[in-house]
Amino acid sequence: MENDLDKISRSDLKKEVSLSKGGKSYEYSSFVKERVERKSFYEILCQRVGKYVKIPMSSKENENLQKDIANAGLNVKPYEVMGVSIAVLLAAMMLSTVVILLTGQLMAFTLLPLSFYAYTYLKGYPSNIAKKRILDETSEMVLGILYVVIFMRHTPNLEAALKFASNNLEGHLGNDFKLLLWNVQTKEDRDIFEAMDDFLIEWRDRNKSFVDAMNLIMSALHQINNEKRKETLDMAVDTMLSGTYDDMVRYANKLRTPVQAVSLIGITLPIMGLVMLPMISAFLSDIITSDAIFFFYDIILPVIVLFFINKVLGERPVGFAIPDISKHPDAPPDNKFYLTINRKKTAVSVFIIPAIILILGILLYILYVWTHLDAPPSQLDVFGSLTIVIGLAGALASYFYLSSFQRIRIRDNVNSVESEFTNAAYILSNMLGEGKPLEISLIKASEEMKSTKIHDFFEKIETNIRKLGMDVKTAIFNPDYGAIKLYPSMLVNSIMRILVSTSEESTEAAEMSMSNIGRYTKSLKQIDEKIRDILSETISSVTFQANFIAPLITGVVVGLSTMIFLILFNLGEQIGSIADASVDVGGASTMNINFILGFLNLSSSVDVWAFQPIVGVYLIIVVLLMVHLINKIEYSGDIVYFMDRAAKTLIISIILYVIIVSITTLLFTGLAEVAVTVGVV
Q1: Which of 228, 247, 266 is a domain's end point?
Q2: pTM for this one?
């Protein structure tokens, strides 16, 4: 019997890893072809530029870079990476020098940090891609172990189990399993155990839980007693789940301080620093210009903060994989939303409304500046310049909303089904354990979960079986009518494939697979909940800052700065009048006034109509950075959730900002006028 199972497994395996006339399997050949043909811009840049600039490296640096390149799957050489990094650094520094010499603006020195950022980014690109790829593989490892264990519970053949896992895994781990099988077929490795040992050596320092789980799986093959073998396989799953949970807890605990530091140093303190700019600009008017403030606050600082956010959160382990909802029948095409006209859906571009709002805001701003260019500063400059901030925020908010409001419903449904699969898996396991066929078990599970979203999923399967006469597999996976089409989740897809595959073997195998699936989904849910729990205080703090603190502080800064601008302008006018009146007198008083005017440029500091938009744009960027930070923590960077939250947060923060700016400007400029009138200044 065991020989028959082995024969069947190897026959199935041959379909996946079969030697063709050219000596390679179709799947692996296509995999290699894809890697060779798909060159990124980075690879092209390195190959074209890096070969002309060869920088010597130490053997250790060369070895580390080569390791990162191999792990990232990039087709470049270490010297090419170093060469293009140095070339870009030198080119950027030369450009900065030329700009400084031609313009004479010290602001051009701010280009130098961007030069070093470009160097760091290009040199560290292979390492970042390698980390991302390893993280993607790590997120698949629990599911990969589960696939292998479920298959080996009924067929103790490691090659066939890896083939089964590679067929169902959609990421890099599935490709790695195919590579292992290919190495065995081509005799590069003596057998699957030697190939697996070499593979696990690479993961020894990356994910110890995965290595331990795979070692337990391989040791189970040597168990003579069938029950002992199954116990060892279950132990492998438990080892992987507990290890993943522990890794996430450690990561979340380490993440709290860096996230708070990024929020405080990168966002809060720069906002507070804005209030000092009007005073500083009076003394350093040649350096602290509108262009310099804009370049630093709206370009350099956001780039640096974004870099650190991605660096801090770049190693976040993923619980549930982000579903691709683009193939859902109700999902609109990219950059479009559905508008129902005469009961007919019409796809409309998401850019039309944002473009109208943005253009209107820009035109109103240009009109105001054009008509008040030579006028003395006043509180009207604040209100006249608010149009461009409102226009930009409104354009972004409408774009994010139109891009996400229909997709978020689909995403929420899929998310609900994923989270409810733990209970569904245990219910199915109990039904199958009673000896019920899979079709009946699915119907019974649907009846027991009527108040949940997953009921609709099971009901769709039942409808396909009863009304369309489909079998279970077709009812789930049919490309046109299958239930899985309405729930484009890798997790749901994988679970149903396991259920159908194991049910074809036996009801007992399906029962055990659902029991393991229940433990698996429960563990993943605990992982996501744990990271939210540990970082809940930080998430709440960042959310509060984005919604209230940031617009409150920036609004007060604009009002206070406007008051300072007006006071300095009036002070400059009065000192100038005194200087004109004392020309005839001469002497020390004239020299003192000229000395004051020599280092104080009171009347030509930053314009109010330029300063307010800079602060407003910075607020918009800060809000988006905070939303990005929260989204990375809570949803692993899911773009749909980002756009949904960004739209809501932008609307709240900009409304509050406009209110605070209006109140503080009227209040503080009123105080400034009183002070000037009564002769305080």
Answers
A1: 247
A2: 0.78
